[in-house]
Amino acid sequence: MPTTxxxxxxxxxxxxxxxxxxxxxxxxxxxxxxxxNTLGWTGDFTDTAQGILDCINERxxxxxxxxxxxxxxxxxxxxxxxxxTGPRLTGIGVAREIRKxxxxxxIVFASAFVNSIxxxxxxxxxxxxxxxxxxxxxxxxVVARAIANYxxxxxGAGEIPETYQVSSKLEAPKMITKIMDxxxxxxxxxxxx
Length: 193
What we know:
Strand content: 5-15%
Radius of gyration: 16 Å
CATH superfamily: Response regulator
Number of domains: 1
Strand order of the largest sheet: 2-1-3-4-5
CATH architecture: 3-Layer(aba) Sandwich
Order of helices and strands: HEHEHEHEHEHH
CATH class: Alpha Beta
C-alpha cells in the first residue's frame, strides 16, 4: 500500500493504536487490515455487527482494560437479518450500544448507503461517516486525529487544543466532525472532493 502524506501525518498523530474495524465486505475488511498494518497499529476485525459488540464487551469492560482507541464500521450488514427474537442489528444500533458503555470512543462509519437521515443520526451519535468508495488514507488520518484527541481526553494530561476543546465527555466525539470538516476543506482547496 503506497504511503501518502496523510498516512505519515496519521503515524505521527497516533504512532500506536488499537482499533476495531468491521465490514461485511471481505475486500473492504482486507484493505482496512492493510491500512492498520501500514500504520503500525494493531486491530481486531469482524464482518458482523454482533461481532463488534462481542469485541467491545470482551475488551472494554472499563477504561482500565485494554480497550479500543476507535471503531470503524459499516452501517449495513447484509448477513444480519431480523429474527423473531429481535430486529436486524445495524452499525447505527451498534454505535448506540457502544455509547451506553463508552460515551466518548471515536466511531467512524464507512458506508455505501448514506443519505441525510443517516448523516443526521450519525451526528447525533457523535460520530462521522465516509461515503464509499472511501479514500482510506483520509479515513485513517481522521481516525488518527480523533485517537490523539481521545487519548488526551482520557488521560486528562494537558489541555486539548482549543479547536477540539469540549465542555463534557459526552461532546468528545464531536471532534471527529471538526476534523472531517478540516479534511474536506483542505481537499476542496486542492480541487478535490
